[in-house]
Amino acid sequence: MIKIDNLSTSYETMDGDVHVLNDLNFTINDNEIFGIAGESGCGKTTLLKALYDLVYYPLKIDKGKITLSGTKNGKEFSYDSGEIRKAWWNNISYVPQAAQSVLDPISRLKKQFLDSIPKEDKHNETEQQTLERVGKYLEQLSLSPDILEAYPFQLSGGMRQRAIIALATFMSPNVVLADEPTTALDVVVQKGILLMLMDLQKTLKNTIVIVSHDMGVHYQITDRMAIMYSGSISEIGKTEDIFEHPIHPYTQGLVAALPRVGDKSAKEGIPGRPPALKNPPKGCRFAPRCPYATDRCRSEVPVFREYLPGRFAACHKLEEEGVK
Ligand code: SF4
Q1: What pTM value is reported for the model?
Q2: What is the mean pLDDT of the chain?
Q3: What is the position in ligand 1's atom list of the atom closest to the CA of 249?
Q4: Which residue from 91, 150, 197, 315 lies 20 to 30 Å from 143 (Cα-Cα)?
Q5: How would you label 226-264 residue by residue, b for 16+ Cβ within 10 Å and e otherwise?
């Protein structure tokens, strides 16, 4: 389980700090595929970096706590004590955005696997024995062990992505964080990657956190999801509930804009653009685009709270009128 308490982050710039995540409070459960959706620049990737403790200048954690529990040895790793890095590979792993290009272009995949597996997890094996284990794991994922002899450029984009996912999951981590795992892949390959992630989650019984701007990805694969807007979370709930009955006006706009089978009506996106994080509006940041915005919305930040069991949102309209 990952618990996020009052998490706020910012990027240091020449013109002062740009606040990117604002007081996030939520939990990602064991044994679920959890999605994080939202438009570009809403803070999805920053959130994933914070969860994995990939926090380097100019990014900084301003306040809050991240706790990873339910790990293999029962140990709890908290960001505050700098311990999440000790959980890398074995308990938490990361598939970065544009993962296909993070492989070292001049090393064969076998070297990249050998270099990534922590020494203590090689159990005094010879390189050949470790590679045999890796080969067997690749076969479980329907990948040929022959790819270990390949350089990244010899593989297709989809195959490189599969290899990265294999690398990230080889140690059977409790949590896998995947940032836009299907971006830049064609639809058929995307489907294969999503199926691979679903199979892995079923086999490992772990938690997979997927960041994607593509609502279709969340619909197909996630159990629960968070909708982010301008550095905050607008709504969290079971994925089927979010798609069937979105309660936050931003989520309603996102879902209404999705194409549906058999529906030939023209779909319109939400008018306007997200605000610049450097100079966001006061109150609810969605107010300039929200059809229900009131003076209160323009002056007071809505509180993120539970409106239905397991259903959280931040909206004054919901607070005043309840869920309809
Ligand atoms: Fe719209 Fe107001 Fe709710 Fe923000 S708080 S989403 S502006 S109704």
Answers
A1: 0.93
A2: 91
A3: 6
A4: 91
A5: bbbbbbbbbbbbbbebbbeebbbbbbbbbbeeeeeeeee
